[in-house]
Amino acid sequence: MKQNRLNRTEKKAAATLASIFGLRMLGLFLIMPVLAIYGQSYPDYSPFLVGIAIGAYGLTQAFLQIPMGWLSDRIGRRPVILSGLAIFALGSVVAALADTMQGVIFGRVLQGAGAIAGAVLALAADSAREEQRPKVMAVIGMGIGLSFVLALIIAPLLGGVIGMSGLFWLTAALAVGGILLMWRGMPETYQQVPSRDVLPVPKELGRLLKNMQLQRLNAGIFVLHLVLTAWFVTLPLQLVEAGLAAEHHSWLYLPTLLLSFLVMIPMMLVLLRKQKQVLGMRLAVVMLALSLSAIAVFQGQLWGLIFSVWLFFIGFNYLEASFPALLTQHAPAGSKGSASGLYTTFQFFGAFAGGVAGGFLFQSFGAFGVMLFCVALLVCWLLFSIGLLQVSATTRLNFVTRTLSPKEARELTQALTDVSGIEEAIVIPDEGATYLKIKKDEYDATAINGIVARFQ
Known about the structure:
Elements: H1 8-29, H2 35-38, H3 47-75, H4 77-97, H5 101-113, H6 117-126, H7 133-185, H8 202-209, H9 212-241, H10 250-273, H11 277-297, H12 302-330, H13 336-384, E1 394-400, H14 406-417, E2 422-428, E3 433-439, H15 445-453
Helix pairs in contact: 1-6, 1-7, 3-4, 3-5, 3-6, 3-9, 3-13, 4-5, 4-6, 4-7, 7-10, 9-12, 9-13, 10-12, 11-12, 11-13
Protein name: MFS transporter
Organism: Aliidiomarina iranensis
Subcellular location: Cell membrane
């Protein structure tokens, strides 16, 4: 029974890495709910520059998160994570000292350059037994979600007291806290799992970009984060115009978020049980489109905005929680790390594009123009998703083998694919690794272990 639980080292690693990643993401999210309001104190303020400042981190994050993951394979996870947090702290200090919006943008670009996502996930995999890795990853995922919720609650409460400069100093302090946690709290690891599990493989990226099932998911996460970022260029000002003071926005975000979970979680469980996750994705996209349409219609009416925010959070939280599982189901065997790397790259590019588009449209056409653009993108995404297939629940197994000859690799691949329940078998002879994608409840574990044992 104990083998089904995290051991002490795994628990400590999961808690430490979730805290490090959560503190960093909290620092990135903190300015999102308030910059549109308090950014007006900068002499070069404009809605366009506000949008760029909100999304600027996504540009450098998108470009650097895959290379930083590869670098962690060469020089180690810890040096990459520590240096990334130091760069993030430096960017926060630059933004805190800035007296113009352009200076804030430069600081945000630096913040994004501390791209540690790949290295953190790789270290999480190194720190856990294979059967416990999904639990460790889930704890990190919950930390990211919690950081988003905390940012929506904390930022409006502090923004009016300490201002934008104070919020950036707080993000610098959070980064220093992450460095201390990494330095003193993270247990030593003595394994390095095959990088295909968690990090992209360069030669596979082109092939995966041609996989239209994965591209539908990549396009989805791009649009989702574009819409989220563009939305926060306008929403705080719309709430103020509707009569809700900036310092009270927390009391709108907190209950709407909590009430959204009361709908989202049962919805997810029912659709998961019925194997209708793709249908659930489309329903969530419709919710987002309806919520933004309602915001466009109910501008200036507080209760209409509150309902729209609640509906938006239902759809957004459902998609954020369900997309990783859909990605895992569609990713080829031995390519989960590559598929995840491309997915997160599209996510961060979406955040940057949303800031730029939201700022430009708000400045040129007002909030109605932003909402119309976002609804149109969501409709396009919905149409593009028509070809996304619902696949059966799968899981993955990885095995270490001896170095195999090409003939032995072919024999092992053929023997494994003949076993009932195995959807894909990928053998990498020079890595001594075998990757299986299998139907969750239909595979013969004894037969698989017997076949692999002959090549170990």
